[in-house]
Amino acid sequence: MQKLAKGLDELKNKNLLRRLKDFRPIEGMRAEYEGKQIINFSSNDYLGLSQHPLVKEKAQQAIQEYGASCSASRLISGNNPLFSPFEKALAQWKGKEKALIFPTGYSAAIGTIPALVGKSDLILMDKHCHASLWDGARLSQATIRVFGHNDVQNLKQILDRYTASYEKILIISESIFSMDGDVAPLAEMIELKERYEGLLLLDDAHAEGIVGEEGNGLASCLQVMDKVDVFMGTFSKALGSQGGYIASSALLIDWVINKGRSFIFSTALSPSSIAAACSALHIIKSESGTELRKKLKDNVAYFLEESPNSRLFFSPLIPILIGEEAKAIQVSQELEKIGIYLPPIRYPTVPKGTARLRISLTALHSTEQIDYLKGALKKCLE
Ligand code: PMP
């Protein structure tokens, strides 16, 4: 226990200590934090669907009908009738034969990756991949080689050098990166994975609902959905709920049902979360989803002071690199004093010395709120 106390002290000295504080949503992106009214610029509820009346109603109905929990893993007695139609809708949305829902996106990663590769295999990971992908890769016991962030040249070098020594090759990347808000060179990665006969797992967490036809992600914009072997996603961002999934071939999904430990040994996602996510997907695919995407795109363009169509792909995540952890904390605290919630993102979420403020824009932010943020940032960053 003394060691733990010392460890916490060390974290504090390095400005890396994290503490939980109460956060109470009020309405839209307004919330109460530590007793103060703030505007939230850190939410992943990109389209505001967690607050959509229909999404809330469907969640409530599911509780009335099926109770608050599925009360067992899906292979025991937790396979609620809500799963199958939603999985079919997800598979169709992602252009795949089948989809499989997990309790969270994190558990989708740590269940799927070790089910696909093992000791005699090679994983190639983008340096900036999300922690869930890293943890899945480590659990698999495959050899992990890291390529530079979005660096396809480096990916090719590693493939050239190491492919021959391994049985299977799995390339892992995000589509829109969570900490940088930038976009993976998907077409080039696909070309390489085909040349070296590997598999590609693409985490679409921050692209879903945002880009692509009917919001179905980055690969759809590039018309390469059939070339991505496994899509991974989460319901906790644009889908306004909770839960994760993969979409792939029927064969691969059947394999993960049998081998994915986080799928087999964890209680099924709750009925309310399934129903909420399913309803959010219907909205995302509808006319009103298109409007919400447009509003979000307009908000991003407004913040960046550019035309909404000046980029091929847009990301709701806009990082402001600060560098030192202490400095990022200080700026974030200054912003908080004037009612802006933008917590610092620090190591180990991002590399040491690259602490940042990550602005997360949503369709629910008003132009007045964005103006207020811009003015405040100008003041605090000076
Ligand atoms: N992948 C990425 C890129 C993420 O940002 C997140 C959530 N922060 C996850 C996976 C995990 O998803 P979940 O929150 O559903 O566990």
TrEMBL record:
It catalyses: 6-carboxyhexanoyl-[ACP] + L-alanine + H(+) = (8S)-8-amino-7-oxononanoate + holo-[ACP] + CO2. It comes from the Bacteria. InterPro entries: Aminotrans_II_pyridoxalP_BS, Aminotransferase_I/II_large, AON_synthase_class-II, PyrdxlP-dep_Trfase, PyrdxlP-dep_Trfase_major, PyrdxlP-dep_Trfase_small. SUPFAM superfamilies: PLP-dependent transferases (SSF53383). Its EC number is 2.3.1.47. Its cofactor is pyridoxal 5'-phosphate. It is an enzyme of class 2 (transferase). Pathway: Cofactor biosynthesis; biotin biosynthesis. Keywords: Biotin biosynthesis, Pyridoxal phosphate, Transferase. Homodimer. Belongs to the class-II pyridoxal-phosphate-dependent aminotransferase family. BioF subfamily. This is 8-amino-7-oxononanoate synthase. It comes from Methylacidiphilum kamchatkense Kam1. The lineage of its organism: Bacteria, Pseudomonadati, Verrucomicrobiota, Methylacidiphilae, Methylacidiphilales.
